[in-house]
Design a protein that fits this description.
This protein is an alpha+beta fold and about 80 residues long. The protein is built from two helices and four strands. About 30% of the residues lie in helices and about 25% in strands. A four-stranded antiparallel beta sheet has the order 2-3-1-4, with helices on one face.
Amino acid sequence: MDKTNRFDFKIYVARSMRMSGYLMQRGFRLRSIGPCFDMPNKDVYYFKNSPELLEAVKDYKETKMKEGNKNAKLSGIQC
């Protein structure tokens, strides 16, 4: 698998409940919720990865950065 191709990952993991809500409002289906291994008191939200989902994540992060939310760039990971 080419690590530079962001679409090779099957799952996108959002660490932010707000981002998850944003994605669901835009029609992306939440696949699962589970505990965050780095922060046991938090949950993570699993979505099927796609170019459209990554574009929505990018839009969300750009909006948050404009609003001054410095943590927006750390909101999700891909598995």
